[in-house]
Protein 1
Amino acid sequence: MIQLPDFLTEKIDDLVEFVKTKKQVALTCIILVVFAILAFIIFTVHSCSSVTKKEVKTVRTPQVMENFTPDQEIIKPDGPQMPDGYALSRNPKPQWTEKEIEEHFTVPDDENLEDLKKANDSLINELLGAAP
């Protein structure tokens, strides 16, 4: 039989004594160690077996770009398309027509002007407060 060193036999005796005196704690520790080993094995097997290389979509460039030389003309990429009816700029008319005036502008009456004057006066008084 194999002869173990003294310090190893002492440690094994201490472990056996611990298991005899505290069975529940020892059993819990053993179960946790076994679960940790199983989790490690499952993780390594899963990571090794599920290695799938993701397909990278490659965009084929035009034949001109594959053999590029600095003397070639630069090819401008396609930009975003403008939707139909989109105007980059417009020429505003200098004056409104009578139809536009009737559609967009309403003449305020005296009561509305007086309410606006009171609201403005109260804002000014609030801002100025007790200023001289």
Protein 2
Amino acid sequence: MNQMLPPHAPPSPELERLRKLLGAEKVKLGVHIRKMNSPGSPVYRMAENVIPSAGILVASFAGTLLVHWYLGAALLAAGCWWWMMKHLPRVKDGVFDRTAALVLSDPAVFDFWWSRGVLSLYARLPDGTERAAMRRNDWRDWVRALPADLETQAPGRRAEDTP
């Protein structure tokens, strides 16, 4: 059965450091939600996207056919409000969480999705400067270029503020 699994890349010190920085909230991971929440993506869940919207439409059509088009329009408006205000934020959070778990699991997986332009990285350094990396940048060089003492800084404190 192990022959069926794809080979894993060797351990990456940059990915390990990135995991630590993300855990310490020194670096932020950005995910292109629209690309990852599309059919064909490994984190796409059809039940999150198609079934609720189909339910809204069926309820609206049923209200229109059984009662009046006013009820159908009201059900559609309420369904759209629920979709935008309640359901969509949960879907976005779920896609982000699943994508982060996927890409941080293996350096080869991170490299693949980085090359597709799905991921970005952002850090605010202790001196107040901001650094970001996107597809055109090498994420490994970006992680290596971060200051070594970044992990030891307390959240929200600058280097000159520490005794």
